[in-house]
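User: Can you predict the 3D structure for this chain?
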Amino acid sequence: MQKEKMNNEYKEFIRVKRGSNKLVLQVFQIKWNGPHTPVSKWVTVKTLETSVDLIKLDEEIALLLNTTKYFGFCTKCERNLLKGWMHSDNYCQSCAAQEFQIVY
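Assistant: Here is the predicted structure, written as C-alpha cells:
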C-alpha cells in the first residue's frame, strides 16, 4: 500500500498526540454493548520520545495496523479495519452482510 494512501485511509483510526516531552500513539477502538450499541474510545498504545524521526513514527504506525488486537484484515475487500468492525477473522461486517446476508 502506498504511504500516502495509508496515511489518508487510516488517519481517522490512528492519531499522534504531542505532550510536553513525549508523543502518544493512540488507536480508535470500538466495542459493542449490544447489537445496536457501539462504544468507542481512544486508547493509548505507545509512548515515544518527541525526538523520534518520521521514519520511525511511520514504522510504529505500520506495526500498529498489523496488530490484531486493534485491527483485522478483510480478505474480501482487502482492507485493514478496526477490530470492532470485523464480523470474523476474515470478513468485515460490510462484506459479511454482502456474502452471507447477515444484517447488522
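Residues 3-100 form one domain. The first strand starts at residue 14 and ends at 18.
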